């Protein structure tokens, strides 16, 4: 297996299969009780009222507004891009979202709808959500997304290969997908709900980082459990430790099951306390969400108006 371009301190880990296995199994084990206790403790923290509007606006700017259903239509994607551009039409000071995420065959429609903005065009690929297809098909999936204008690609790893310990196969596939992305950023979906243990989440996180993933992402949103705070803590630790070892900043994206402003703020607290303040930016932290934005907009109105507006005042996706 060929190694990606890495700082010298980590280059040896990707020299061959044995080196990769030795490195991943040499990572410190995750203290399950400790990580769950810390996640619970940080989740109980409250933030000052003066900081809540900042947190809401920050969370809005981190949303990957997503539709990934078999019944998706061109009209639904157009409506989604309109909402991404102006999340609350009555409040033009509302931040735009980070990206719109769709299937590869709908990327061109998203590109047209987001023309003239800095909003990212993300596409899932590699036989999402199962990842069960040939390398050739997965690369074709990525090529369709990128050629259609995707600026970000969300790939899924082969969980079967990972759980069987075929780390080299997973590593090489991520490398191949990264190369196929060209200038598009690569988010590597670990599907943590299928990885069983926190130790596996840590190994998969490092494997994705070693192979060149720009982001590590918890879930497809199609498997339960999806994103959880303890799992996100483990992944935030991984990107923090990667930065310490290499000086390179990589991102984290929890996805699936994050529906309320209260939930989003818990994740922002975790980002600040586990990784650090510099990760509190859409370039390094995203929410994979479809319904979260609506609650953020309602709570934003509440902060400005001093009373709850009700769901009828926000367009439903």
CATH class descriptor name:
Alpha Beta
Please count the beta strands (DSSP E, at least 2 residues each): 8
Mean pLDDT: 94
Q: How many strands, what sense, and barrel or not for the largest sheet?
A: 8 strands, parallel
**Assembly annotation:** single chain
H/E topology pattern: HHHHEHEHEHEHHEHEHEHEH
State the distance separating the first and last CA atoms: 44 Å
Overview of the molecule:
- This is Deoxyribose-phosphate aldolase.
- By secondary structure, the protein is of the alpha/beta class.
- The protein has one domain (8-304): TIM Barrel, CATH 3.20.20.70.
- It is 47% helix and 10% strand.
- It is built from 13 helices and eight strands.
- It has helices spanning 8-11, 17-25, 32-43, 49-61, 74-85, 107-113, 135-147, 159-163, 167-181, 198-210, 229-246, 261-275, 292-305, and strands spanning 63-66, 99-102, 120-124, 152-156, 185-189, 215-217, 251-253, 287-289.
- An eight-stranded parallel beta sheet has the order 7-6-5-4-3-2-1-8.
- Helix 7 (135-147) packs parallel to helix 9, helix 10 (198-210) runs parallel beside helix 11 and helix 11 (229-246) packs parallel to helix 12.
- The longest helix is centred in the C-terminal third of the chain and has 18 residues, at 229-246.
- The termini are far apart.
- The relative contact order is 0.15.
- The model has no long low-confidence stretch (mean pLDDT 94).
């Amino acid at each position: 297996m060929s190694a990606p371009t890495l700082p010298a301190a980590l280059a040896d880990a990707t020299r061959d299969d044995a080196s990769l296995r030795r490195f991943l199994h040499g990572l410190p084990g995750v203290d399950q009780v400790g990580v769950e206790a810390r996640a619970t403790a940080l989740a109980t923290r409250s933030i000052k009222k003066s900081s809540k509007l900042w947190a809401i606006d920050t969370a809005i700017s981190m949303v990957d507004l997503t539709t990934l259903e078999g019944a998706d239509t061109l009209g639904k994607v157009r409506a989604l891009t309109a909402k991404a551009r102006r999340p609350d039409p009555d409040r033009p000071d509302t931040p735009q979202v980070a990206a719109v995420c769709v299937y590869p065959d709908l990327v061109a429609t998203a590109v047209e709808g987001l023309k003239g903005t800095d909003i990212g065009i993300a596409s899932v690929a590699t036989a999402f959500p199962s990842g069960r297809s040939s390398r050739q098909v997965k690369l074709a999936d990525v090529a369709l997304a990128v050629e259609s204008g995707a600026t970000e690609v969300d790939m899924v790893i082969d969980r079967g290969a990972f759980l069987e310990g075929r780390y080299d196969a997973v590593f090489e596939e991520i490398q191949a997908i990264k190369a196929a992305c060209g200038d598009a950023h690569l988010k590597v979906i670990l599907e943590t709900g299928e990885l069983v243990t926190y130790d596996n989440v840590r190994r998969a996180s490092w494997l994705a980082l070693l192979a060149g993933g720009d982001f590590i992402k918890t879930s497809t949103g199609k498997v339960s459990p999806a994103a959880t705070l303890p799992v996100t803590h483990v992944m935030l630790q991984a990107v923090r430790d990667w930065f310490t070892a290499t000086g390179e900043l990589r991102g984290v994206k929890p996805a699936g099951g994050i529906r309320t402003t209260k939930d989003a703020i818990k994740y922002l607290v975790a980002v600040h306390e586990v990784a650090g303040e510099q990760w509190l930016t859409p370039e390094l932290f995203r929410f994979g969400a479809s319904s979260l934005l609506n609650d953020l907009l309602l709570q934003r109105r509440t902060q400005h108006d001093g009373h709850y507006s009700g769901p009828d005042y926000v367009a439903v996706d």
